[in-house]
Amino acid sequence: MFRLSNLIKSVTDGKKERVLDGSIVIWNFTNRCNLACHHCYSYADPNSKDFLSTELILGTIPELKKAGIRFVIFSGGEPLIRRDIFDIADAMRSEGIMTYLSTNGLYVNEKCVDRIIETFNYIGISIDGIEEVHDRFRGMQGAYRKSLDAISLIQKHGGNAGIRFTITNETKESFYSIFELAEKMGVDKIYISHLVYSGRGLDNLKIDISKDERRKYVEFIIDKAFEYIEQNRDIDIVTGNMEMDAILFLKRFAEKYPQLKEEMARRLIRWGGNSAGMKLGNIDWLGRVKPDPFFPFVIGNITKRPFSEIWCDEKNEMLARLREHPRSLEGRCAECGVIDICNGGSRSRAYAISGDLWAEDPSCYLNEKERKGL
């Protein structure tokens, strides 16, 4: 994740940089879902059954802590479908692990809203455009209204929920409206995700936007981040799955604050770009461990081997190569002058298009001059 707003605030205010102490795991606790989103990477199915038992999950929590996991994002499918989801989150919090919730919001109601707010450090609700677009993309009429009702209900009970939006050909017509919606509803975070070619995202490769379109949208995102800070609006902007955004961001930041360019560049290099297999991991609904949720290869399974042994395996050559910084990659990445910032982007996209895990990210929109360095 690339936290634009946080970086602008911390550097311009001269505050200490925010450094992740430990790693993040995105855990798909279930493959069950009440929606059928076009970009879903887990092939979620409303008729599937939960594979991982409560006991196995609870027994894995000490292993997460042992491996240096400090944050767990609860995902799915739809995580709120599991009846034990609060017990799992409580157990993690008792071990000092922060819990984030990624939900479609359809199961947020008066009976559980307070428990959700009390349990999760952050709540992200997926919105993929204006009503017609969202409902078509999510595969359910009325889904949009229910998701907005969930945000309003959380706010009514003293919490706050961010909006998560994925840019695709099917949702791009609503891109600008998402910012208007966030401003109107007073949410505290907008998370813009770029499409990764995995799951239904791979089946629907045609739904991805062009590089020119991506650049245009990213430039708008960057402008909005600066605008909100200048207007003292408490809306954080974060992008995901497109670490090259940081290079375009640095270029704009240098124009506004030339005297702080070197400090920002230093922080971006320390941030490190794509962190799959390093600061980011995934456990899917079958217990398979991967460097990120979209990754084409599995490095182990918690039903067969303790998580800490899988994640800390120094003999795993793929993990070792993923943990290089900057990574040794091919194509345009091999001679890129800013790879120490983006770290080569998504390995999942590279593999999906070229069949080579170490090829260049095919979605990189940077021009030749930008790739040589600023």
Return the average pLDDT rounded to an integer.
Answer: 92
Taking the sheet with the most strands, its summary is: 11 strands, mixed
Percent range of helical residues: 25-40%
* Number of contiguous helices: 16
How far the N terminus sits from the C terminus, by CA atoms, comes to 22 Å
Instruction: Tell the overall outline.
Output: globular
Low-confidence stretches: 35-44
Strand adjacency order, main sheet: 1-8-7-6-5-4-3-2-9-10-11
Give the helices and strands as they follow along the chain: EHEHEHEHEHHEHEHHEHHEEEHHHHH
Which structural class best describes the helix and strand composition?
alpha/beta
The count of β-strands is 11
Rg, please?
Answer: 20 Å
Beta content comes to 5-15%
Report what the structure shows:
- There is one protein chain.
- Helix 4 (113-119) links the parallel strand 4 (98-103) and strand 5.
- This protein has 16 helices and 11 strands.
- The model is unreliable at 35-44 (pLDDT under 50).
- An 11-stranded mixed sheet has the order 1-8-7-6-5-4-3-2-9-10-11.
- The protein has helices at residues 4-12, 54-66, 85-94, 113-119, 131-138, 143-156, 175-185, 200-203, 211-230, 245-256, 261-271, 307-311, 317-322, 339-342, 347-354, 368-372, and strands at residues 2-3, 23-28, 69-75, 98-103, 122-126, 162-167, 189-194, 236-240, 280-283, 288-290, 300-301.
